Amino acid sequence: MFPRDNEGKDKLNESVTSSKEQKSDRTENKAMSREELFSQDEEAKKIYEDIMSLRKSVEALKTDDMDILPDSGSSRQESKDIVLEDTEEIIAAKQAIIEQARRDAEAERIQREEALKREFKKKQAQQEILEAQKRAALIEEEAEKKRRRAAEAERRAKAISRKQALDAMEAEIQAKNKQLRENNTASESEATPEEIREFFDEDKPEDLMKGLEEAKKELLSAQQQQDAKIGTISQMTEKHTEKLAAEQQIKLTQQQELLKEEQAKLQDLLEAHKSERLAREEREKNERALREQRTKVEKLIKEEKAKAAREEKLAKAKKKRDEKIQRIEAKERHKREKREAAERAKLEKERLKQKSIADAELGGGVVNVKGIQINTKIKDTMSISLKDLLGVADRKERKESSEEKTQQMREEREKRREEAREAVELSMKQKMLDYENSPLGKRMKGLKTFCDNHKAPLLTLFSVFIMLLVGVAGVFNYCTAYEYSYNGKTLGLVKEKDEVLRITDLVQGALTEDKNVDVIIDAKDDIEFKRVSALGDVEIDNSEEVLKRLSYMGNLNVKAYGIYVNGKKVGAVESKEAAADVMQDIKDRYTSGREGAEIEEAVFIEKVDVKQSNTDLEDVLSEKEMVEKLCTSGETEKMHKVVAGETLADIAKLYSMTEEDILQENPNVDQKKLEVGSVLKIKQHAPLLTVKITELVTYEKQIEYEVEEKDDADLYEGYTETHQKGENGLSEITSRIVLVNGEEKEETPLVTTVKKEPVTEVIMVGTKEKPPTVGSGKYIWPLSGGYTLTSNFGSRWGRSHEGIDLGCPVGSNVLAADGGTVTYAGYSGAYGYLVIIDHQNGMETRYAHNSSLLVSKGDKVYQGQHIAESGNTGRSTGPHCHFEIRVNGVAKNPINYLP
């Protein structure tokens, strides 16, 4: 039984009050201890353990770094900084976990309150339904009693009327008979001898005597006629009585038929009500199962997401740790290589001075910046790759096409270098010859002769001038620096342009190999220099810092392959082959996945183009990123109409969204109270590409068997029996299936082969008229089949045994001994599972110790109906059926009533 309304409201109020108190306690005690947090949230405990494991790994890394680099103070300092950064991250992660745990606890509390409210409303509704059903049953029972009383009163009135008519006819007949008897008595009275002598004189003639005899005969004849008339009247009376009795019997039969029809209608109503109740219970059961299944699926999805998040977090932490190790190793390697390069530079100083300016293509040569000419050069000894500086390990598996392309690019660069050197040498020789033959050359030659003749004074004067010039240049160089920028974006300051220009080719080649795209860095056009003051606290970049800034520029211009959908660019990938792989991955994602499926066609409904274009490096996506973008960057819009009882949380759950997302699209909606009939705008992510796939699929399909119903005169109406169980057949179907984004839109069967024919199920439907569901006064034995009378009515074991016991196996059919109404069906102490049937007129039967019950309280049963299965429940010494007959509540010996 459900609790009453007031009790439910009190419980709900207590629950809400307790939740509010808990919330206030949490507000006052915001500082939650670690043990309390872990006891409430196992997820937080796992994340904390992962963080502590990560911290131990970092500490171990620090120890390893100290062992590897004992003489490097800077490395030790960097290791300390790394530990400090990790410690701050751990603290932030702890705080985030605590905040998330608090939010989860609050959300869980709100969900519990809402669930409690919904459960209370549901129980209240069920209570109202039960009360309505009880009221309907009471009204129906009262109506049945009224119908019975009316029928009984009508029957009694008709019996009284018939009796009065018969009494009147009997009185009339008796009156007529009495009158006839009086007449006969008067006519038959004979004269005494004295009267005869007095009347007849002996002297009278003989003819008078004859006249007297004739008169006597006439009187006898009249009496016979009177008797005949009385007999006729008696016959007429009997016929009239029989006619009245027949008419009364016909009317009684009609009344019984009407009563049967009413009972049948009532039974149909009860059956319909019962069917509706069972259907409603089945629907509720299915809904509960569906909700439980949905809850389990959501829980699994949530667990998978949490697991993926943990794994991703650990992977990021591991990646970060590896990157730090690689950076430390790269720094040490770079320092070592720098020292070696400095030693080699001393030995090759003369060769470097005579290096041709033919390296202009690689960023060297004469650079004119605002009228100032600076001679720059390229060091051949700079052969350190970007991967060596950053400590990034070479990939073990490269595509053959990428290796060939890289080798071709290297050969082309070397070829261009040689051609440029030869062209510059020829050009310089020709210029020298032209200069010597020109007037200026001749004058310069005369000047040279003059200088040769006056070497000493000119040399002194020139030395003073050079010293002044060097001093001015030194001061100028010391007080100024070059601000270098790429495509208008300032990157930093350097002392010499050469420090930037000599690295551009290195960065270009390394990024080309690393990114698998053709990176373009034009040193002349893309890199700009501006001389600025270097006085004060100004940070000057060294070669390593210049390398980092150029390597991590996001707006580097590269040649990549853009993917266009309906003429609009979505993104770019590194190569045409990568774009083809992206398209194929998207098509594979939406195939049916059926075994043996043959793809006939896979096309995009939208227009898709792949074009090579110049793109920023940061806009080049990997294959996985591009597939994800094409599959999720679209958007679809739906309109949802609010129905009664629907909440914002229900709608968000229906569309796998958050309440905040719905409110963002519908700012005028009151989230606490949704208006029934209002329309909400729902926006969801959708694929940007629509894939249409045509497949040939061969699969097996069951052929559902048919059901044939046949009438059976041996079964009661409303009962069925399976004569032949149906079996499904099996067919093999080859179909052409059209899928749009994985959803089946069309199926065209091509070939169908029946491998197994179905077997028709034959059900026998009862046509035999049901016996009346009212008491007849005659009883049958309550068991069918084999049974034994194991205990009689009367005294037994010191107490009264108010029925008889019929020994039988558990599960034997228990039958209604007579028609009637079930007044009790349930478990009753020593009786076990008990059925009580009221047969009217104070008659009642009981069937105890059953294993299962097949009827409910209020059911109408007929004689011989299967109402239960025997068992051994309650106070019982063995499997049997305890049978009682009670008259006005007093137990009677059933043997006296059974055949």
From TrEMBL:
PROSITE patterns: G5 (PS51109), LYSM (PS51782)
Record bears the keyword Signal: yes
Signal sequence annotation: none
CDD domains attached to this UniProt entry: LysM, M23_peptidase
Entry-linked InterPro entries: Cell_wall_metabolism_enzyme, Dup_hybrid_motif, G5_dom, LysM, LysM_dom_sf, M23ase_b-sheet_dom
UniProt keywords, alphabetically: Signal
Comp. bias (Basic and acidic residues): 1-13, 20-42
Region feature (Disordered): 1-42, 176-203, 312-347, 395-423
Keyword Acetylation found: no
MF-aspect GO terms: metalloendopeptidase activity
Residue ranges of domain LysM in the record: 638-682
Domain of life: Bacteria
Residue ranges occupied by any G5 domain in the UniProt entry: 689-769
A Pfam family of this chain: Peptidase_M23
Name recorded for this polypeptide: Peptidoglycan DD-metalloendopeptidase family protein
The species this protein was found in: Lentihominibacter hominis
Lineage: Bacteria, Bacillati, Bacillota, Clostridia, Peptostreptococcales
